[in-house]
Amino acid sequence: MIDSIVGNKLIGIKQCTKSIKNGKGTVLYVAKDAEINLTKSLIDLGIEKNVKIIYINTMKELGKMCSIDVKASAVLVLE
């Protein structure tokens, strides 16, 4: 299990989507309990752009991994 996500990162579906479209980002973390209708297009885009996708069990756990006190549905590690 990953304890924390280090390095430059973006948090949130909109920011992650925008950066992946611009060819930035190497690893996408997605919470399994996030709304599928919000994350599906982001996951599909990540697959299309050959971004590695890692699933995390909960949004709370993903937020904690980013050292923030709120839940996170998606996190993108930048190049």
The tally of helices reads 3
Number of strands: 4
Secondary-structure content class: alpha+beta
Outline the low-pLDDT stretches.
Answer: none
* Widest sheet, order of strands: 1-4-2-3
InterPro entries: Ribosomal_eL30-like_sf, Ribosomal_eL8/eL30/eS12/Gad45
Organism: Clostridium tertium
Protein name: Ribosomal L7Ae/L30e/S12e/Gadd45 family protein
Domain Ribosomal protein eL8/eL30/eS12/Gadd45: 11-78
Structure characterization notes:
This protein has 79 residues and is α+β, with helices and mostly antiparallel strands. Helices cover 37% and strands 22% of the residues. It has three helices and four strands, in the order βαβαβαβ. The protein has a four-stranded mixed beta sheet, with helices on both faces.
Summed up:
Helices cover 37% and strands 22% of the residues.
What tags apply to this protein structure?
single chain, 79 residues, alpha+beta, four-stranded mixed beta sheet, 3 helices, globular, Ribosomal_eL30-like_sf, Ribosomal L7Ae/L30e/S12e/Gadd45 family protein
